[in-house]
Amino acid sequence: MEPGGSSSEDGKQKRYGNIEPVDKKEETSDEKVKMKKELGLLEGVAIILGIIIGSGIFISPKGVLKEAGSVGLSLVVWCLCGFLSMIGALCYAELGTSIPKSGADYAYIGEAFGSLPSFLYLWDSVFIFVPATNAIMGLTVANYLAQPFFPACNPPDIALRLIAAICITGLTWLNCWSTRVTSKLQNVFMVTKLLAIGLVIVGGIIALANGGSAMFENAWEGTATDPGQIAVSFYSGIFSYAGWNYLNFMTEELKDPYTNLPRAIYISLPLVTLVYVLANVSYLAVLSPSAMLSSDAIAVTFASKVFGYFAPVMPALIAISALGGLSCHIMTSSRLCFVGARNGHFPDCLSLVTKDRLTPAPALVFLGVLSLGYLCTSDIYRLIDYASFVESMFILLSVASLLYLRYTHPDLPRPIKVSLGIPILFLLICTFLVFLPLYVRPIEVGMGLLITACGVPVYMLCIGWKDKPKWFKRSLYKLGFASQKMFMGLKEDKDD
Fewest 10 Å CB contacts: which of 55, 76, 270, 298? Predict the structure, then answer.
């Protein structure tokens, strides 16, 4: 949305867009107002691992097993999900280095297909994907933090929501305070995540050494044969791998992105695939398929059988792991909102960075408030189901943009250029996974498309309509000015 001002305000807005400037020379010590490149290779790997390895691998591998129908096919699905994530990440590495802008899918779709498709992605992401995911991650942390205090019953719902709200608010504040501290903290979270998975793998090795291999007899018994059901089995696996593209949201803050972006992908994705497959083998070495399907917290059930008195350590490690995923998700997703506002798709007040810390505090706080709002409803999982189809569609659109730009802009500088067969293969596999289960989940698909369609009139009213009333422009101008004073914020300087 492009907030404007009256003619008397044009002079004030000449350089700073739609928000009244402050004395930049006095406040910025002649430095450019721009988010700093503070993320190196280790931080890049930690961000990818921090997003991907959250709570999913610890609590919901049963989704793959349930739909696959057999142990053998479930392990194949986990391997193929890792392969799919890897080739998808390679496509995004080309997009991220040829279009080195923060915002990932939003930037690529806009570059290839224009303003409306990129706005619809932004609309779905900011109002559905991001805050709902933050709320779910916060509730996951709360569940595992509260579990030791309520061993014989479920924790009170209000307590879980309060803990989740504290986690979301605290991590939002930390991201507003310092990107460097938050990214360094990801290194600690990464170690905790790998320690938790390491304990599962070690426990599985011990179980295999003591006869656990018997669980893999008749591994292919009950294998699903319905193509739609097999495609649905990939959804739980892909959900656990979700986040492989999130480093692209922060390309502008990555040191030497042409080198560090692909290296972070090459290191993190094979590592995640390896530990995920080993973790599932470990689960199956200890728990029977029926035991896995009856458990909502597989890692905790696993720990109670393997570690005895030390089993309570696992919920604590899972809580820290989920907290790291939440912190990483808050940090990366705020850049999407920030870039959308900077491009005029959201109000200018969300495109400010703080003058001292150079962090996108208004965007962080806005998404934090939306996330807290999602804690007021208990039906957010269904909302995520409605939107997941659309999110997959936008990933397809992003990879299609790579092929489109190859055709329309063959001379575009591409520091990384993948083989043409890789994006074509990714597109074909994703098309199969997205469209084949339509008859299995028609309601979710329909609602997802309806939510997306609601963004079209918003776009026409707030962006397509240029001759807006003066009161509307003045209101947005005042909102931006108030935001600037509240956060001590400035507009970013443009590159020379």
Answer: 270
